[in-house]
Specification:
This is Plasmid replication protein RepL domain-containing protein. With about 190 residues, the protein is α+β, with helices and mostly antiparallel strands. The chain folds into two domains: about 15-60, no CATH class; about 65-150, Arc Repressor Mutant, subunit A. The protein is about 25% helix and about 20% strand. It contains four helices and eight strands, in the order E-E-E-H-H-E-E-E-H-E-E-H. It has helices at about 65-80, 80-95, 125-140, 175-180; strands spanning about 25-30, 30-40, 50-60, 105-110, 110-115, 115, 140-145, 150. Strands 1-2-3 form a three-stranded antiparallel sheet, with no helix packed on it. It has a three-stranded antiparallel sheet with strand order 4-8-7. A two-stranded antiparallel ribbon has the order 5-6. Strand 2 (about 30-40) and strand 3 form a beta hairpin. The model has no long low-confidence stretch (mean pLDDT about 80).
Amino acid sequence: MEKITNLKQLKLSPKVNPLIESSTPIKTKNGLVVTKMGNNLLDPETGEQHTHALIHTIKTINDANFLKVFAEGVKKTFELNRTEMRVFQKVLEIYKKGKMTGGYADSITLCWFDDGLNGEKIGMSDRTFQNGLKGLLNKGFLSPKLRDQFWVNPSLFFKGDRVAFITEYKRTNKTEQNKLEDAGQQRLID
């Protein structure tokens, strides 16, 4: 997209909206923003495809901030309480030290002994750790494999360098016309 520098010399387009098919990245102070209309998102409740206005922001951050942003994004998305978050961070540390196959480790060992996780003191009691672990199991972060061994959710535990948190905002008070359009009815033009 070209920059507008003179409003008196605008490139006019009276018959075609050039912004419909355009998804040219827009540079911002902290990254890039790409906008587009898409119908490639599925409603997880119904399985239906819906048209969405997509606003994709790409921000580049250093490694230390990446881990912080990732952890905060996970905390917010899964509504982790303080204990679940502390346990998630400790489990993530253990995961990062583990052997990887195909870009991720499929399971980890979480054994409580010597008043610590895998023998290392982590600043919490066994009971606190167990409560946080239960929360991570209930929210699909981990799944039991063997005693003290757990399968990991590869979407939440990975050694990649990119992550996207997508929040969809769904309107609750739809007009009758909006409901008809969602069902495929085309709007009548006045």
